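dumping this here before i forget
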Amino acid sequence: MLLALLILIQHQFEYQLPAWRLDLLGANPPKADLVLVEKGARRLSLVRDGKIYRQWRISLGFDPIGHKQREGDGRTPEGRYILDWRNPGSCCFKSLHVSYPDAADHAAAAARGDDPGGLIMIHGQVNGSGWLGWLNQYRDHTHGCIALRNGPMEVVWRAVDDGTPIEIRP
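structure:
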């Protein structure tokens, strides 16, 4: 009964993020100089002045080992990119675009005769399933994106400006 009540409360507030919850998560977090993703540890960190100040568990593409090679491979790219634009109305709870593929990714894919893919995002849970966020974070389920629960995604959204670098490590 208690578990059902907690899930109901989580579902109710997953998109509304009332003021008390934002205060707990950091309504006005410091701006990040860098977003660091460590794929092996399934961790996203916000970095300012060379120091990590917030971090959360993430989910990745359904085949996360190695650098993204082609459209549909289920891999999350590795390397240094830019978070270059944002979508507040995406299919997921907010999303930040990773500038993959860059010129080197395009060249490598062309040499293999592949489409490098694209539209890699940091995003919250798929709209309508935010209440399952706690469960989704324990399985890699994206097509190459980096998924957070909706609460942490709100904090990242507020802490990251367009143009912020992102480093994605193996």
